[in-house]
């Protein structure tokens, strides 16, 4: 699937018209159309940033194929809630990474 096809897919799934997306992103409707139809194959990072923001997705989501369900991790609601709780409690990503590294180190030491 091309970038344009992913943009069209995301846009239509969200019920957004081509005109509405162009207005939200501040880009020409004709340009979005040419990207979606595969005429323009190499859109700029600025364009992708505007489109991704307007569609509430990451630029990575526009550029890369979504993972196959068999490749994705099955993260349950409890894991998501724990991560959210950690973030809300003020634990930084770096502190969390350090904690994980310490746990790995302890496990390796016990083996």
From TrEMBL:
InterPro entries reported for this sequence: Cro/C1-type_HTH, Lambda_DNA-bd_dom_sf, SinR/SinI_dimer_dom, SinR/SinI_dimer_dom_sf, TransReg_Diox_bact_type
Protein name listed in UniProt: Helix-turn-helix domain-containing protein
GO CC annotation terms, alphabetical: cytosol
Molecular function in Gene Ontology: DNA binding; DNA-binding transcription factor activity; protein dimerization activity
Pfam (any one): HTH_3
Domain (Sin) ranges: 66-104
Keywords of this entry: DNA-binding
Coiled coil: none
Source species of the chain: Priestia aryabhattai
UniProt keyword Transmembrane helix present: no
Database matches in PROSITE patterns: HTH_CROC1, SIN
